[in-house]
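I am still getting used to backbone structure tokens and would like to learn alongside you. To get us started, please write out a protein record for me. Once you have written the record down, we can walk along the chain together.
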Amino acid sequence: MESLRDLGLSSYEDRAYRALLALGTGTAAAVADESEVPKGRIYDALGGLESRGLVRVQTDREPKRYAPVEPAVAVDRLVEAKRRELRQRIETYESGKSELIDRLADAETTDDQFWTAAVGADDSLDLLFERIDAAEESIVVVATDVSAQFDVDREGPELLDRLLGVVRSGVDVSVLLSPDVFDDARAAVDEDRATLTIAQGPFELRITDDAYGNFYLIDGEEVCLEVADPLAPDRLFGMLDLRDRGFATRVSDGFEAAWAEGTVVDEV
């Protein structure tokens, strides 16, 4: 911070306070002369300082004299006032958040088809986590292989935390894994944590050899599809997010068939 204006004082208030520091004490006229604040504005400036507790006023003599509080006290009081102001703003933002979300949701278009994409492992994870967090009803996870770019020990628990977060908000989560991916996931996640996850509803886990590829079906109408690098199939090229109800229905039908034949996992 370079001046008291950074903490909410006006230019005139800042100059008047600095003038009082130089004077020690002074009348309004003396402060105006020292600070070069117009005499028609000096009383407003001093009144602002007084209301903030930055000056003391001697009223037992005429004309009134003003004395500044110590700089450390002045700065502490201004910082505390700014802290209260920011807390009030945050409370206002928090109280209005739900209403704003509802208004924005009402304004959403109902186009049946839309797609977006992310390239690279990091951006793909960001897109996936964003869509998981946006789920309202259900999430289907199908994973039959793991890209060489992913660190299962790091990304596995993080993905699990995201899924548990939406489970706690009432979203149904169904996870269908190949045996190899299940073994990798089990090795990456703490056993107690895995057991707790499986025990939570609405969370279900099954294993199958009859699924292919990695995808995430969100709310039955949106598919996040991992795209392999055509020149290196074991590496991820990107993530494709498709909002196409016709395609999502096809994916859902294929999932239901594989899910019905999958082996239920109820313990690790």
Observations:
- The chain has a mean pLDDT of 86.
- The CA atoms of residues 77 and 83 lie 10 Å apart.
- The radius of gyration is 31 Å.
- The first helix runs from residue 11 to 23.
